[in-house]
Design a protein that fits this description.
With 119 residues, the protein is α+β, with helices and mostly antiparallel strands. It has helices at residues 12-22, 28-38, 47-59, 83-108; strands at 26-27, 63-69, 75-81. The longest helix has 26 residues, at 83-108.
């Protein structure tokens, strides 16, 4: 599915960012690049949504930030996962796994035949 048609469900962006930061500190562009690469280009995070999410998670204490120099020798803010962020990632991962399994159960369910109720 083209990335422009793929809308992220509410709460999805945070878990993607937290997962990207599990590897280690990264600047915003690097997080977006990791998500795009990991999803084979299916998910592309818009800058506005990315930085809004990063700032919200920093305010919640899930990530910390400090200034550094990027691989292009430019000043960049690097984000790191905190202990609270690791706990949130684990919680959100479990919730998403349950949600995804429930959706797949519905998608794999046989179609109702004539006379069978779907209710």
């Amino acid at each position: 599915m083209p990335s422009e048609q793929m809308n992220l469900l509410r709460g999805t962006l945070d878990i993607l960012i937290l997962k990207a930061l599990l590897v280690g500190p990264c600047h915003g562009y690097g997080v977006a690049r990791w998500v795009r690469r990991t999803t084979d280009g299916t998910l592309d995070i818009e800058d506005g949504a990315l930085y809004t999410s990063l700032h919200r998670m920093q305010a919640r204490g899930w990530i910390s930030a400090e200034w550094g120099v990027s691989e292009n020798n430019r000043r960049a803010k690097y984000y790191s996962l905190t202990g609270a962020g690791r706990a949130q990632l684990e919680k959100a991962t479990n919730e998403w796994a349950q949600y995804a399994e429930a959706v797949f159960k519905v998608l794999r369910a046989p179609e109702a035949t004539d006379g069978e109720s779907t209710a």
